[in-house]
Amino acid sequence: MSEIAKDNGALVRVDRVEKVFHRGSEDINVLADLSLQVPVREFLALMGPSGSGKSTLLNLIGGLDRPTRGTVSVGADRIDELSDQQLAHWRARHVGFVFQLYNLMPVLNAEKNVELPLLLTHLSKSERRKHVETALAVVGLSHRAKHYPRTLSGGEQQRVGIARAIVTDPTLLLCDEPTGDLDRKAGDEILDLLQALNREHGKTIIMVTHDPHASARAARTVYLNKGQLSSKPEL
Amino acid sequence: MKYFPLIWSNLKRKKVRTSLTILSVLVAFVLFGFLSSIKQALTGGVQMAGADRLVVRHKVSIIQLLPESYKARMERIPGVVIATHQTWFGGVYQDPKNFFMQCPVIPEEFLDISPEIILPPDQRKAWVNTRTGAIVGRKTAEKFHWKIGDKIPIQSSIWSQANGSHTWEFDLVGIFDGKEKGTDTTPLFFRYDFFDEGRGGGSYGKGMVGWYTIKIKDPSKAAEVALLVDKEFENSDAETKTEPEGAFVQAWASQIGNIALMVGAILGAVFFTILLVAGNTMSQAVRERAGELGVLKAIGFTNAQVVAFVLVESCLLSLLGGGLGLGLAWLVISRGDPTGGLLPFFFFPVRDVLIGVGLALALGLATGIFPALQTLRLRVADALRRM
């Protein structure tokens, strides 16, 4: 069993998790007896080679997938026990996702993209607008609110993605290769932003990355290889 | 409503594809409108038929005449209130294409038995007092710009006068309206006495009439009265066939064929095709957007909400096309009978408009349901990779 743990004050607790995918008659063990704790307000980088299970682990923590065995808790919630509908509601309240390819709706402008998670709340239109303005201001894109994704640069699109992730003020930010599709300059700006969100706004961030330059911005880095975690990269 | 911009934006995503799909739905609903109106035109008389009226015609066929003397015998049959007759005149006004129904009738009896015809009392009085008088429905009067006092020449293809002329001239003394929207206001009615005398001595059909309409006391005894009437004239030179007015009109319309079946078959084929076209559009749209639907699920939209988005989008597409199609059909159909008088009941019934709206909604649900169910099988983690 591999364990990278901090005992108290953990926001995320992954306990002895296994994840097996079935491909035809073949079983593929992606995660094996893996445990991980992420304290509140930590900025954790998750590194590892392709196919090591980084995104799978992120999906389990974000409630997008369920473990084959083991438990996943975030705060007081055992999310591996929630139904699909409960998970959807839970994600809406507690998690913000940032994706490598931004995953914005091409038919909506920046502010409408950012507003999407707020549609699931009971906020009025004017309240939603205020939240959207705040989120766009945090990522420095107030002046591009009416722009559609196709008219924004990659870095700007990722900022919109981050604004969408933080607009509901979630407990946890899960970032899957947030700089993977950006040049160094734009990538650095995004990492600056994530650091600021962690330090100034107290967001707990788990970031999957291939890039040591990106992981250096995190407070802690863990390495995933062949379904096992370690605190050092495998040579 | 807060989700509407998202759904609407998706519809606008592929403008050409959306427009073509809406256009195909529109064409189907224009066709629906026209076929409904044609069906209405051909069978409308059945709906307007009086429950307390029977029609007595020659047993062999409607074109065989019956003696005028049957009237008194019919009125003696228990259950019969009054019997009055009409005869097919088969005339045109000025030009063969200006065809509409004309019949000689006995004015007071005819008006008493036809409560669906609204004629002002002074015009009724004028008709009773004018031997050459005729009344015409509002639609025909407006079509030919006739007004009361005009002399109307009608050329009959069947009936000549004693002098050999086929042109009969009438004094227009009244213009009637229909009590209900479906009432036929195209015919012209004139006096039987003028007609019968005009046919001249020895002329074909003198003293003979086309068919009788009888009013009965109790509609629930219609079958019994019909049997009594036919029995009265059994083994005579002109045996009769008596049936409810609705059945008579139905039989008249059925000369063309089973209209409901024909309309149903055409619409069935059209809507099945549209189902495939619109269904394919929606399936394609959902496949293309799998990644985006995955994002929606990732940020907290439930399966039910995503299914609802797809269904609402598909219904919106269908309602837009259907609504435009029904509207266009309504506009064109409201201009009136395109045949110039052959289809007096040609209009788009409100009932059929509502059926059309329901059909558009059903089409939207039917085309959206399978793509919507596809989204249930969509795993978020897989969908996100498809962006």
Provide the low-confidence segments of chain A as ranges. Answer: 1-7
Proportion of residues in extended strands of chain A: 25-35%
Query: Biggest protein-protein interface?
Result: A-B, 28 and 26 residues
* First-last Cα distance of chain A: 20 Å
Summed over residues and divided by their number, the pLDDT of chain A gives a mean of 90
* Total helical elements of chain B: 14
Oligomer: heterodimer
The helix content of chain A, as a percent range, equals: 25-40%
Distance linking N and C termini of chain B: 27 Å
Give the helices and strands of chain A as they follow along the chain. Answer: EEEEHEEHEHHHEHEHEE
Give the strand content of chain B.
15-25%
- Please tell me what the overall shape of chain A is: globular
User: Strand sequence of the main sheet of chain A, in spatial order?
Assistant: 7-8-9-4-10-11
**Structural class determined from secondary elements of chain B:** alpha+beta
> How many individual domains of chain B?
2
CATH class of one domain in chain A: Alpha Beta
**What is the alpha-carbon Rg of chain B in Å?**
29 Å
* Element-by-element helix/strand order of chain B: HHEEHEEEHEHEHEEEHEEHEHHHHHH
Task: List the uncertain runs of chain B.
Answer: none
Extended strand count of chain B: 13
Structural class of chain A: alpha/beta
Could you please describe the fold and organization of this structure?
The complex is a heterodimer of chains A (235) and B (387). Helices cover 31% and strands 29% of the residues of chain A. Chain A has seven helices and eleven strands. A six-stranded mixed beta sheet of chain A has the order 7-8-9-4-10-11. In chain A, a hairpin with a 2-residue loop joins strand 10 and strand 11 (228-230). Chain A is globular and about 50 Å long. Chain B has 14 helices and 13 strands. At the A-B interface, helix 1 and helix 2 of A face helix 1, helix 11 and helix 14 of B.
